[in-house]
Amino acid sequence: MKSFITTLKNIWSIKELRNRITYTLILLLIFRFGTEIILPGVRADVLAKATNSSANDLLGLINIFTGGAFNKASILALGIMPYITASIVVQLLGFAVPYFQKLQSKEGESGRKKLSQITRLLTVAITLVQGGAYLTYVNSLGAVDSNIPTGVFWLCNSIILSTGTVFAMWLGERITDKGIGNGISLLIQMGIIARLPHAFLFEFNSQFANNGLILFVLELALLFGVVVATILIVQGVRKIPITFASRMVGRTSKYMPGEGARDYIPLKLNAAGVMPIIFAQALMFLPATVAQFASSDKSGLASNSFFRALNDYLSAPYNTIYFLLVVIFTYVYTALIVNSQQYSDYLKRQNAFIPGIKPGSSTTEFIDSITSRITLPGSIFLGLIAIFPAIAGNVLGINRSFAVFFGGTSLLILVGVALDTLQMIESYLLMRKYDGLVQSGKIQGRRGGINIGQGY
């Protein structure tokens, strides 16, 4: 406890770090304040009753990421999600379209600025589309004041929702530039954490009413174990040793600074991060959409038992397909972002090699084989994390609102963002020759080793 207090004092004694942390907290509070401001013309009492009585996996997930702003019809109801969607689209275009590939890899800072500008414009377009869909959803719940003209309601609130998303995007960028950590990720994390106390208290009261406090303690122990296991997988890397060769000067070997030294290539066990779960989850929402059309035209498809099971996130067919999709997308996304040829070319330029492996194609094949082998356990674990909320809710009987934090996108975002932020704080401490946040080892973020072509 004493060392923890000392660490906090060291953090606060560094002026730049203190200012960055304070700046970040202020902007996060502003964001949370914005989630409480309701759109004009929306009847909050009617909306609260309607959202409490309805259940939808997609809308529930969006509500978690926005910190409850979605169900409140807040000016930040769409949160930062349109920006995330736009970023994913631009990133995928970078893998398939030569123009975007050039911007990502060959034009340096100017290319990144151009991509950032394209992402912002695409965010506004996506927000306008999603804003219209959201207002339709609010209107279908009967939560719109009938005294307000329909055209005025739609026009004003479409502009407000778009402005809210742009403002949230601006807050995230300001946190990244002048605060601590990745601003966009911190806004999502803040939204998820905002729902945790309510879910925690609801589960506690439910277990207390049924004399199940011991069971509640076991649930907390299980949650702790899942978080620890997730940290191990997120931090896990396979280190491939490399050696920098010496140069021949005349008939003798001459070592230049850094030559003859050893380093390593860190291949992450979970190089794809949370993206496979996001893609798989998007596909699993399609059966619900098809079911709506099937029920409206009475085709009989919606009454099919297997099809109905795909709309139940607790069912075995749903989770089996969901698990397989996560595994498949993990391999696909890892293949896109881990470029073995790029590693091989880098080693050749640096006059380095992997001991026992010939430079060139042999090095490329070796790195590719290692990547394939470590991706298998990483993809399986990611699939288990994706379906674990359903296991916690269906098998263990944990309340759905609390079971969400036992895995899936929520847990990976919480763990990943926390580790990255702590790693940045530790780097400030080590630069000032203070002890880090951990007494042994180190917190691994996006840095360390030769890190080429990978992303978290």
Characteristics:
Preprotein translocase SecY subunit, mainly alpha, disordered C terminus, single chain, 456 residues, 2 domains, two-stranded antiparallel ribbon, 3-stranded antiparallel β-sheet
Please describe what this structure looks like:
A hairpin with a 2-residue loop joins strand 2 and strand 3. The protein folds into two domains: 179 residues, Orthogonal Bundle (Preprotein translocase SecY subunit); 261 residues, Preprotein translocase SecY subunit (Orthogonal Bundle), CATH 1.10.3370. The longest helix is centred in the C-terminal third of the chain and has 34 residues. 68% of the residues lie in helices and 5% in strands. Strands 4-1-5 form a three-stranded antiparallel sheet. The protein has a two-stranded antiparallel ribbon with strand order 2-3. The chain is mostly helical.
Note the topology.
Elements: H1 2-13, H2 15-34, H3 44-53, H4 57-65, H5 69-72, H6 81-96, H7 98-105, H8 108-140, H9 150-178, H10 183-209, H11 213-235, E1 237-244, E2 247-249, E3 252-254, E4 262-268, H12 275-284, H13 286-297, H14 305-309, H15 316-337, H16 340-349, E5 352-353, H17 361-394, H18 400-403, H19 408-431
Antiparallel strand pairs: 1-4, 1-5, 2-3
Helix pairs in contact: 2-9, 2-10, 6-7, 6-8, 7-8, 8-9, 9-10, 10-19, 11-19, 12-15, 15-17, 16-17
